[in-house]
Amino acid sequence: MSDTDSFIDEVNEELRRDKLFHLFRKYGWIAVALVVLVVGAASYYEWQKVREKAAAEALGDSIILALGAVSPESRVQQLATISTDNTQAQYYLDLLKSASQTEAGDRTAALRLLDAVAADTDAPEVYRQLAELKAVILRGADQDRATRMATLERLATAGAPFRVQAMEQQALAMFEFGDKDGALVILKNILNEPGATQGLIQRAQQLIVALGGELSTAADAATE
Predict the structure, then answer these.
(1) Alpha helix locations (H) across 82-162?
(2) pLDDT value of residue 224
(3) Where are the domains of the chain?
(4) CA end-to-end distance (rounded Å), the chain
(5) How far apart are CA 201 and CA 209, in angstroms?
(6) Does residue 220 contact residue 208 with C-beta atoms inside 8 Å?
(7) CB 62 within 8 A of CB 82
(8) Rounded to whole angstroms, how far apart are CA atoms 163 and 172?
(9) pTM to 2 decimals?
(10) Higher pLDDT, residue 128 or 5
């Protein structure tokens, strides 16, 4: 390579460095801003996680403390003082409040909360169906028969989260309406349900016997 070529290469290299330097001076702040933004976002995300965890722990402690109250009236009062910005937690809290209100004998207040959760389309389906089932149970005979059975029928559909509990209520309602045979059919079907707990199966078996049904037949069906 000649001295001229070498000189030209050096000039070109110097020009490239000078161009990069000017570009950095002109746009370098963008890179710095991006770094700051990424670091800031990561820090904020971690802070949010810590904050949410602390809030969840505080809410859990408050609920445990309230549920530890001796009387249902005290539980109602303590649960009423708990508030949360988490809408999911609020639905759960409302269900706990309604249970304590029921124990305290305030049926009207309990039904008001249950109906509100059941009607809230933003609530998770599992909470809505639980609220609806508890409301049906709490109202008992003080509701239209057709509405009661239609609600239980819907809650007892395959795949519903509280299917077996709704089936039990169906059987009880049928017996209440004088349909002993229909109640026995549902009680025997409960024994075949994979989601039935041991406690629920035992209750179903006791009801089958109490209604004059054949427990051995039901037991055989449950083991098939």
Answers:
(1) 87-103, 107-119, 125-139, 145-155
(2) 43
(3) 1-67, 70-139, 144-224
(4) 94
(5) 12
(6) no
(7) yes
(8) 14
(9) 0.70
(10) 128
